[in-house]
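Archive transcription. Copying these from loose printouts into the bound notebook so they stop getting lost. Printout 1 of 2:
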Amino acid sequence: MNLSSAIKAIRDANIAALSTAVNQNTDCFVEPAYLDDDGEVVVEGPYNLPCRADLITRIDGCPGDSVMVNSALVNVFADFEVIESNIPLTIGTFHWDNANFTASLNTETDLAPLIEWFYSWFDAADENEPDAYGLYGVTHFMSDPHFVEDKIEFTVDFGSAPEDVFFSLIHKLSLLGAKFVSVV
């Protein structure tokens, strides 16, 4: 299996789960960002990262319960390593909505470009139009990156973002000086 095929299979499983949930919950907010009482996107943690729900039910036009969609585990390949963006990339079995990243980075690395990467795919202004599945092509979550010795660790929920989101993240990590990246 090559990297593109693996990423497509993993993403497709999540898109299938999300689109099924949208079809089963016809009166819902799809991929909404969490907002405060003033309608501003809520941010948390040291990097001020926002978050999106998969779905929020609608009751009489008002937000109801958050619905978390879990994609099926795609285990159609054995772990493998490739060179992507000029660095070794190890791909294990992971969920599109729960990808755990480890990358070798100098602890002095400025992580602002990584945070900017996330925001660029998050679409905080909600400008993206829905696709044929009613999804918006956005990331949902990134945990605050933290260093463990000479490695950075963080988790990403790629939401309904296109496959390019994955490759752009690997490229961003390469530009930040990562010597290797692992995704499980």
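Printout 2 of 2:
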Amino acid sequence: MKIRKGTRHDINRVLKMSGEFIEEYRKSVKMETDVSINTALKFKKKILEKDLKSGHGAIFIVEENKNFIGYIFVLTFTPEMESCKKYSPGYISDLHICKKYRRRGLGVMLIKEAERWLRVKKKEKVSLDVSIFNKKAIHLYKKLKFKDKSIKLEKKL
């Protein structure tokens, strides 16, 4: 397994994997939404392109024999603090591993790579959001010493 820093040339592969994960997630939680996966991915593509170009974002990719296995997308700011990036903690936006490669330590490897990059960018903290339904991801993050910071609530109107 090899981890490398991604480039804008990897964005379409990242989006393909992200779309597969969104579909998997929607099925697992029986989520209904008016937003199509294609619409979500077009929006995500703009974000990836902008943040990679500015240097405020990075993608790290894990591959085996040139097969795309997973990625992490990390930012030097949390989205709600974009206007004051200097004071914001870093942010893990996405972490996806192909289903058949999960539970092999690849998520840990990608998070550690993202943390190294954030330290170089002079960040002292990193945050992320995770759905309460994603028990395996929560377990991974807690194993890596992430702590509960907030609870986001919503209800259907």
